[in-house]
Design a protein that fits this description.
Largest sheet: 6 strands, mixed
Strand order of the largest sheet: 6-7-8-9-11-10
Helix content: 40-55%
Structural class: alpha/beta
Radius of gyration: 21 Å
Shape: globular
Distance between the termini: 51 Å
CATH topology of the largest domain: inorganic pyrophosphatase (n-terminal core)
Number of strands: 11
CATH class of the largest domain: Alpha Beta
Number of helices: 14
Strand content: 5-15%
């Protein structure tokens, strides 16, 4: 466990206590995490420790298939459809086997207003809820969360990612688990974390033979594979990618990385060809019509590529807009004082009948809307950024 005053240590302590209690009570546990590198890193870190602890409580190996589950969530929030699936599975088992209501751990999701409906539904059925997240926290959510671990609640911002928080929790539960520092470093690098925490994790990872260049290679391979996994747990495959013997891990990463790199290189050329610079005195506003692009890299990564290429070309701060028929993906340079969530609030007020919704971090997120309003919303966004 790293030593820093920025970690929400009291919340981590309460989280560890609730996980321990739930395991000892033989309460079913489900981890629902975002399907990106940060979410997977956090979910898998907790999985390793929880399964280890469960082995000491349950009599039969087969019990773990009924008392523990982990699933990725493609949406960047805990969607009501996912919450309903989770409840349905556990309620069916509870009715047949008189099991306790589950502990549901939501990782890299759960803190925003978009998560509120799902949390309310879980709590209506008396589920215990832990949220481990680093997105801006919506205050009302705390009425339905048993333990909420989020650096925003402690005034620390989002540089400490969900995956990093989960490795701290996991290492507190089981200090001798190997490769947790690798998961923390992967989560931080993948989510562009900055600060003393990620620097410490990078140093720990490098001591184990994983420098930043190697981490970025693994992240690209993981990003490609997570798109193929979809909504499946794929425990063995994920473990081989992250914890398998070094020879298998290296071969698997090399295989996936090679394919991902070809596809990403092709996407870079497409972005260079199709991107449109919009006029603004002080910053570069650049847009890309995402509706023409399918497969890997996905929309968010494509918009990040758009921002990075434009920063390199224009030599000034960039607002990158990945535009599709029903959503716009935003990526802002670090130096810009814009907030995706404030833009979404502005659009909701401006277009009350357009089903405007979305969210994310201040400098990276997505707004969704009715397809018929795409042109109006895009024009309003251009006005917002003083495009002429």
């Amino acid at each position: 466990m790293i030593k820093t005053d920025n970690l929400p240590k009291i919340d981590i302590k309460h989280c560890v206590e609730l996980i321990k209690k739930s395991i000892n009570e033989k309460r079913p546990i489900l981890i629902r995490h975002h399907a990106d590198c940060d979410g997977y890193s956090g979910g898998v870190a907790l999985e390793r420790v929880i399964l280890l602890k469960m082995h000491g409580v349950h009599n039969r190996e087969s019990d773990l298939f009924y008392y523990y589950k982990r699933f990725p969530s493609k949406t960047p929030y805990y969607d009501i459809k996912d919450a309903t699936k989770d409840l349905s599975a556990f309620l069916a088992d509870s009715g047949r086997f008189e099991r306790k209501k589950p502990l549901i751990i939501v990782v890299d999701n759960g803190s925003t207003k978009q998560d509120l409906l799902s949390l309310k539904k879980l709590k209506l059925y008396n589920a215990k809820i832990i949220v481990i997240d680093h997105h801006p926290a919506y205050e009302e959510n705390n009425n339905y969360i048993d333990v909420h671990v989020n650096p925003h609640l402690n005034g620390c911002g989002s540089e400490i990612t969900a995956g990093m928080l989960c490795t701290e929790i996991a290492s507190t539960l089981a200090p001798n688990i190997e490769k947790l520092e690798l998961l923390a470093a992967l989560a931080g690098v993948a989510d562009y974390s900055r600060g003393e925490e990620i620097d410490k994790y990078l140093k720990l990872a490098e001591e184990k033979g994983f420098n930043e260049e190697k981490l970025k290679k693994i992240i690209l391979a993981l990003d490609f594979e997570f798109g193929n996994i979809g909504f499946l747990e794929s425990r063995k495959l994920v473990n081989d990618l992250l914890f398998g013997d070094l020879d298998k891990q290296t071969k698997l990463v090399d295989l996936l990385y090679s394919e991902a790199k070809v596809l990403e290189t092709n996407r870079i050329q497409q972005v260079k060809h199709y991107a449109q610079i919009l006029k603004n005195h002080d910053i570069a506003i650049v847009s890309l019509e995402l509706s023409d692009f399918w497969g890997y890299p996905r929309a968010g990564r494509t918009t990040t590529i758009l921002r990075e290429l434009t920063e390199e070309k224009e030599k000034k701060p960039v607002v990158a807009l990945g535009v599709s028929s029903e959503f716009i993906s935003f990526r802002f340079s670090d130096s810009l004082d814009y907030d995706v969530n404030k833009i979404i609030s502005h659009l909701k007020e401006k277009f009350p009948f357009s089903d405007v919704d979305g969210g994310g971090h201040a400098k990276a997120g997505t707004v969704r809307f009715l397809a018929r309003e795409k042109n109006n919303i895009f024009e309003e966004i251009k006005r917002y950024f003083d495009v002429y």
